[in-house]
Design goal:
The chain has about 350 residues and is α/β, with parallel strands linked by helices. The chain has one domain: Alpha-Beta Barrel (TIM Barrel). The chain has 17 helices and eight strands. The radius of gyration is 19 Å and the shape is globular. It starts with a helix and ends with a helix.
């Protein structure tokens, strides 16, 4: 146990297919007759995890071609959602939002709504066993056609208030800019679904502008390249739009050249509403405690500054008002008890 482990945390940006453990992959493979390229956990790691030698976002995303093979049944989706919360709870994470693209989990016949149902079931089972609260976020994929993404929005709307918190847009940002998806997210707003958008990660700050102004994003996934446009950075600052920053994965995907170029300290000092998240714990080989330790050790964040980021996260959750207020109170109470 260490000082970062003790912090009460939230994780707002976690991908289900980036949270599959090697031992779970082996168990699912045995149950479903999936052929594996290796016979033990250590042998599987190179197929499902990257390190700082990763050369690009496409190389990083290639790991998901492997992990999604194991997430094609209700049993598997429920299990991995449950384990994602269990792993977060072990790091004193009190709240987590698990995002996934339902259309990527239909190879064995699941319907879109069924995929969402099973993920929520896993989240609910974990909530009963661990001191953690969770919600699901349904992802529309940039490389999917309009009909598939509209289907995700409609399916997500049926679970709104029943375990699903919001919708998202993810995938190859550079090849599929957000303006291509205005009508999809217009439907999300018609269905009263909150929106977070991956933007400013593999493409420029103008995508953040588009995500906020025309897709209605109330949070931004990553936003690392926001600094390229001071005018757009100022807009995000003035509107208090939270950034879901994920340091370890941002380094691995080459969203920035290296740790010396990572703008999190500058963003914090300018007053941007930062949140700290894991993105893909298994693919990145990280956890929420490690992310806080990195901010402390590499960027000189004081404990009170880390506490401010945690409070930002609690204020940014996609929860109903009563539940959100209760979570915020608990976070403040536990930070106060730590003298933070």
């Amino acid at each position: 146990m260490n000082q970062w482990h003790l912090l009460p945390k939230v994780d707002l940006h976690v991908h289900l297919d980036g949270s599959l453990r090697p031992d779970t992959a082996m168990a699912i493979a045995e149950a479903e007759g999936i052929e594996l390229p290796a016979g033990n956990e250590a042998g599987l790691i190179p197929y499902m995890q990257v390190d700082e030698d990763c050369r690009s976002l496409p190389e990083y995303l290639s790991k998901f071609d492997f992990t999604t093979r194991f997430l094609q049944t209700g049993t598997a989706l429920e299990r991995v959602a449950y384990e994602t919360l269990a792993q977060a709870a072990a790091h004193n994470c009190l709240y987590i939002e698990v995002r996934f693209a339902p259309q990527l989990h239909r190879r064995k016949g699941l319907h879109t709504e069924e995929a969402i149902h099973y993920v929520i079931q896993g989240i609910k089972r974990a909530e009963q066993q661990f001191d953690i609260q969770g919600r699901a976020i349904a992802i529309c994929m940039r490389n999917h056609d309009r009909a598939d993404n509209l289907e995700v929005i409609e399916a997500a709307a049926k679970f709104a208030g029943r375990g699903l918190a919001a919708v998202d847009l993810a995938g190859d940002e550079a090849s599929y800019p957000p303006e291509l998806f205005r009508d999809v997210f217009a439907l999300a707003h018609k269905r009263s679904l909150p929106v977070t958008i991956h933007a400013g990660e593999a493409a420029g700050a103008e995508n953040v502008y588009e995500a906020v102004k025309h897709l209605g994003a109330s949070r931004i996934g990553h936003g690392v390249r926001l600094r390229e446009r001071p005018d757009i950075l100022r807009m995000v600052l003035e509107q208090g739009i939270p950034l879901e920053m994920c340091p370890v994965s941002n380094i691995q995907t080459k969203a920035v050249a290296g740790w010396d170029d990572y703008p999190i300290r500058d963003y914090f000092d300018q007053g941007l509403k930062l949140t700290l998240n894991t993105d893909n714990p298994s693919v990145s080989g990280t956890d929420i405690t490690r992310e806080y330790r990195i901010l402390s050790e590499k960027f000189g964040f004081a404990d009170k500054e880390l506490a401010a980021i945690i409070r930002n996260g609690a204020e940014a959750v996609f929860l109903e008002d009563t539940e959100k207020k209760a979570l915020v109170r608990r976070i403040h109470r536990e930070l106060d008890a730590l003298g933070l």
